[in-house]
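Input chain follows. Return structure tokens only.
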Amino acid sequence: SGNSEKINKWHAFAGIAQPELFFQYIADQYDLLTCQTFADHYTYQESELVEFNKKAAEMNADEGFICTYKDYVRLIPFLNKYPFFGSKLSYLPMEIYFLRQESEFMNWFRTELQKSTS
């Protein structure tokens, strides 16, 4: 979202399977303040959105919420109703942390391959 350039401290949340890579990616790039995990394909409840909105209203200028693109798409319909949350919410494109996982996997795979051939 537009104001993310001045935000460098993140409250991350994710409703995906194995969110560790997502959290790890953010922790490597920025200040990761809090992590909140929800079930895969999670449907956010009104009470949680109210809570997110309340937290967003109290955040410093350099703090924001960050989620996965998948979560962001699910939240779009609610953002008009929760303007503080909407203004503080950014997402990370999915490819970024999967690509990183892929390179780690390929390194591991090459190492295993060398073991079996040597």
